[in-house]
Each structure stands twice: as C-alpha cells, then as structure tokens.
Fold each of these.
Amino acid sequence: MDFNDTNEEASWRSEVRDFLEKEYPQELRRGGRNEGGEGEGLFRSREANTGGIMKRWRSTLASRGWVAPAWPKEYGGAGLDTKRQFIMNEEFAEFGAQNVGGFGVMMFGPTLIVHGTDEQKKEHLPGILNGEVQWCQGWSEPNAGSDVASVQTRAVRDGDDYVVNGQKIWTTGAQFADMMYMLARTDPDAPKHRGISYFMLDMHAPGVTVRPLITMAGSATFNEVFFENVRVPARNRLGEENRGWYIGTTTLDFERSSIGSAVGIRKQLEGLIRFAKEHPAVTVGAGKQSVQAALADRWIEALVAKMMSYRVVSMQSAGLIPNHEASMCKLFTSEMGQRIAALGLKMTGLYGMVTGGPGEYAAAGRYGVGYVAAVSSTIAGGTSEIQRNIMAQRGLGLPRD
Ligand SMILES: Cc1cc2nc3c(=O)[nH]c(=O)nc-3n(C[C@H](O)[C@H](O)[C@H](O)COP(=O)(O)OP(=O)(O)OC[C@H]3O[C@@H](n4cnc5c(N)ncnc54)[C@H](O)[C@@H]3O)c2cc1C
C-alpha cells in the first residue's frame, strides 16, 4: 500500500491546513502549541457550544458544510468521502483544532439520515447542525454494558405515546443534553435482540432525572439517568417497533468509523519528547536510559497505530465495513494512550501533578490528570476484553466457547 497522499489528497490536505491557519480563532489557540483537540463537543452545554467564540467557529465551519463533513450536502453536510474525512480529522488533530460535532453530528444524525422519516429529519437535523440541540447516547444500563442487548428500560405503548421507565448509566454529557437517542425494551417476551426499539427522548420531559457521576479524574463527564413514567410520542420512535437493535448497529458503525486518527496521541508523545529535551534534569531523575528507551518504544507504537487506522480507512474507502480491524485499532490506540500517560507521569513526577500555577506543563496538570483520565479509554466504546473477543472470533476464527 502506498501511504502517501495522491495529488488530489495532498491538495485537499493543504486546503484544510490553510483554512485552519487562517480561520481558527486565536482565542482557541493554546500558546501556539496545539497538542490535540479537546472535548470534541461531546460534553459542552448548549450555551458553551453555541455562544461566544464557539458560535463564530461553528458558523465559519457551517459556511463550508464542515460542522458535519460526512453528511450528504442535501442535509447540510459536505458530503466528503471517507478518505477526505480522515485527512480532515488528521489535520484538525494535528492543528489541535476543536470540533463542534458531538454525538448528534457524529452518531445520531447519520443514523437518522439512514433510518428516519422525512418529518423526523426535518424536525431534528437542523438543531444538530446549528448546535441548538445537544444529544446524548442512552444505551448502557447497570446490567447492560458490554451486552447492550440486555437493556431492561421499558417502553410501553399508551395511545399516541410510549411510557418509559428504567435507568441508564455512564451517559456522557446527559447533564447538558436536550435529547437522548436510546434503546428501550418494547417486547419483554421476544428474544432479547428482537424486543428493543430505538427512541428519541426529550431530556426536559417530566420524569427524567439526571445524576452526574464524578470520575477519579475529578470531572463529571457522565451520569446516571432515571426515567419515571416519561412520555415519549410514538412519532419519536426511529424505525419499526422491536427493530431498534438493528438500527442501533448502524449507530455503532458510525461510532467505530469515527475512530479517526492516531494523531492526537502522537501529539501527546511529541509533547513528552519536547519535555524531555527541555527538562533534562527531571528526565535524568526518572532514569535517563529507561526514559529514552520507553520514548522510542512509544514512538514505534504511534507509527503502528497510524498504520492500523490507515487500514481501517482504506477498507471504508473500498466500501467494506471494518470489523475486527476496527477492534484492533481501538484496542491498540487506547492501551497505547495509557502507556504514554503512565510514561508522562513517570517523567514529570510531582511536577506533572500540579494543576495550578504558572508553567506550560504544571498549569495543565496534564500528566497527572491524563493518567487517571486514560483509564476509561479501555472501557468506553467497548472494553479491551470485548475487542479481544471480536479479534479472536471474527479475526482468528477461534470458537466462541
Ligand atoms: C468514559 C466513558 C463514557 C461512556 N459513555 C457512554 C455513553 O455516553 N452512553 C452509554 O450508553 N454508555 C457509555 N459508556 C458505557 C460503556 O459503553 C460501558 O462502560 C462499556 O460498554 C462496558 O460496560 P460495563 O461498564 O457495563 O461493564 P461490563 O459489561 O459489566 O463488564 C465488566 C467487565 O467484564 C468484562 N466482560 C464483560 N463481558 C465479557 C465477555 N463476554 N468476555 C470477556 N470479558 C467480558 C468487561 O471487559 C469488563 O472488564 C461510557 C463508558 C465510559 C468509561
């Protein structure tokens, strides 16, 4: 495989890069060293996403259809093919530019475009694009995580509505969300995959309670969400009743395909290498030889991760759906991210734990916080064990039991 850009791809890359150089708001640039985008718009409030500087950035992107580059043009996107999206993601990560997408743009919108009625698209797509409506994903429950098809939240038809009772957990950004796309059980007697429906639920409806969960990194990124007799209009069901599982797999495909590039992680590593050069005393303290060897190992891994993500993208470009290949990529990059965070902590020691005060590294508290924050990456979006199961069974053809 030739990993170099074709002429056309190279000119697209320059177009994206020039655009960022020229248009990315100065206020969002961090001291000229953009080491990876933040937050991806997943858990910002509507105000934070649509007010102030983000409003300007959003409308700059919108003027090119770049809020939702993957969506077809007729729905307000840019209709980019997989390779162009990938290059765009790479350049955004390279630049450290913030994305304004979130769950609505990345996962729910594309699912709605495939499975929604014209009325549903008209009602929900504009709010996703202009950022006025924030979405969250209500799949996991206390007894349904890796095995999402075990969801027990019930939706019972009552006239023109469904009445929803139950609980979701680990719902990222629920405290800011206006709407949730969610799976609920509509037929408890059917085999588990065949008794689930897919709904759009108003988070401001009576009976919805959101309780933030504080992670050990000190932030409340996800939540418990409780439903007590929440009425969801039947017109907010996506697809047929009891076929929700199969629509959910479309959403999952979009989640997998948004794996994007390994650039963000490589940028963290570049930051560590620079730190090692700028602070030889600290690095020596941590054991010069072992730090140098570890940095070299991590660098090789970052290149491997890049090749893996290229493989996923080249399959998508050829119209194939990456399966164990996407699992391999997710597993490797998330575990690599943890190794880099651990190395960062080892190298920066107490210095890296400081979360306030002057100094580029200290002020960010980057490595201390990064170390604990990285733990969740091998759980979110499918745990490492589940990825290994997929690789073993679908990649290596090993038996399930
Ligand atoms: C940062 C973060 C954000 C999240 N955001 C969301 C969100 O927005 N919306 C949402 O719906 N969910 C979200 N989740 C939930 C996430 O999808 C689940 O945590 C994940 O799927 C694992 O499910 P679980 O926590 O119930 O663990 P379980 O499935 O109970 O697993 C417990 C342990 O058993 C192992 N295990 C389970 N099954 C098997 C098996 N078959 N073979 C081998 N080992 C197995 C797992 O690997 C794990 O180690 C988020 C999670 C995190 C960490």
Amino acid sequence: MPKPNLHFPITEAPAQGIPTAVAPGVYWLRMPLPFSLDHINLWIIEDDDGWNLIDTGIGTEACVELWRKIMLDNKDAKPVKRIFVTHMHPDHVGLAGWLCKKWDVPLYMSRTDYLMCRVLVNDSYREAPEAGLQFYASAGLSEEQLEYYQTKFGGFGKMIKPLPDQYQRLQEGDSFTMANHSWEIIKGTGHAPEQMTFLCRDLNLYISGDQLLPSISSNVSVWPTEPDSNPLQDWLDSCAMLQEKLPEDVLVLPAHERPFTGAYERLQHLQDGHQRGLDKLLAACNQPKRVVDLFSCLFRREIDNTVLTLAVGETMAHLNLMIVKGLLSRHTDAHGVHWYKRTT
Ligand SMILES: [Zn+2]
C-alpha cells in the first residue's frame, strides 16, 4: 500500500514544556509520556485575557512540575481561562482536574467521555471484575496472561488526577471564539466514545487529538464493558466524515508526532489499512479461529503481555464489524472461548 504524501512544514518539534507559536495566537506544547510513545502535543490558544488549553498531559509528577514551570517561570504566560479535553485517555485528561482546581476554571469535554472517564477511574480501585476476566478468556488468553491482566488492572485511573465534579458539555457543532477566530467542534468516534476536535477555517488549522495522526494508527478497540460494540464502523464512518468536512490543505495539529498537511490522503490510507486487515482476517477464518490465533493478520510485531489488551481489543473490533455485516459467525465453546468462522 503506497504511503500517503504528507508534508510536515515544521521540521523541529519544540523542547518539552516550551510553548512554541505555530500560528498567530496558537502554541504547540510538548509534554513527556512515560511510554514507548514518549510525548503528547498539547495546544494553547491565546486570548487577550488568558489561555485556552486543549488537552492537559498525563498525571505524573514530571508533568505537574513542567506545568508549574510553564505557568510561573514563563514571562509570557497568561492565566488559564478554559480547559478543553479532546477525549478521556490519561495522556489527554490526566491533569485536567489539577489544572481546573489550580485556576478555578471549567472543564469542557463531551458528556460521554467525561462520564465514562469517571466510571473507569472509580473502577481502577477495584479488583479486576469477573466480566473482564471472562471477556479476555473468550479471546483465548492463557491462565498466565489472565493473571497479568489482573495484576495490571487499574492502571488507567492511576494516571489521572481526580476529575472535577462538574463539567461543561462539548457537542458537535458548538463553536468558540479563540485568538479572535471561530473554532468549530467536530465529533469523532471509534478511538474514544466521543472525541472532540477543533477546526478553525480562518487559520486553516485542525486540532485533531488522536482522531487523526500522521503515522500512528490510533487504537480502535472493543473493551470488556461493551463486548459486542462495533467501534471500527464508528472509526471508518468518522474517517469518511472528516474527508468531507476538512479543507484539503488544512494544517493538522495532532496529539502525537508533528503537524502535517495531507489529511484527505491520510484518512484514505487509514480506511484502506483497516479494509486490508478485514480481508486478511476473513480469509484466515475459513477455518474456525480464536482472537489470539489472528494477531498475525493485523500486527507485524510480537504481541507480548504489555500490549495484549490493545491487540485483543483491536482484533475484536475487526471481527465484530464482520459479524454485524454477516460475514462471520461466532461460536462459544464449553470453556467460554469464542471461535470465529466465515459464513460464506
Ligand atoms: Zn487516545
């Protein structure tokens, strides 16, 4: 599959913790992540009376320290007036509660992501639920892999500082005037329940969160809370919707990697990649297969314990889409393991 022809007009990413202008009143702020993906891009949109933040960074002490420096040591810093969070993942929402409290300002988020995030953070301080164990057992995980899932359960909430008890709902079609221009809210789905992204037609900028990244393909997963969900259809529908909505030459400001142009081609490449995955899985299911038998159809890398739940979720997302379309059937054996087989 040919790579899309993307352009990266800004060659150097800024140093961590240094807000750097990318357009009039719009700043790129890099913050560290303690993972193999080692950074996230946050965006600051400046008004005369303060900063609008888009995303906040993960809830680690390293990021808290960086924020303190940005707000205290930086002579150009303005008070924070609004905090927007694109979606509920810890690298985006992690410090929202801390920042809202510090500045006594509201959190703006989609209703589904706000509520889902609060539920998941609460769940993080329980034992792994039986439904979760059954879900991963149904994918064919071994006893040892299920034990690993149990020991790691709760990691999600531990990277998120307590969320505010109130929030302001962001919805598709809302708009905000920031940096003297109108920013339109566009909702994307599939990677998070309702990811909110920001399009400024005047500046020709699109703050995409994780809905559109230049080379990482965002994880699209089925999770134990909704085992029969069809997030891949949501994701593909969102890709097609964005192809319609985004100006062709828009500069995309993504949450990871570097700003780029070529949104239309990138969105096409993402859709084509998933279609290829679907075709491979369907061919493999000429004989009954479990989720764990199918990883090699979608992933080039070895699936170790650290990425197991993502791999199960993403594989199941492809399989569930084909069940909905009637291309696959699913049979559950006496041990509760699902077997997938082609229907035609
Ligand atoms: Zn995300």
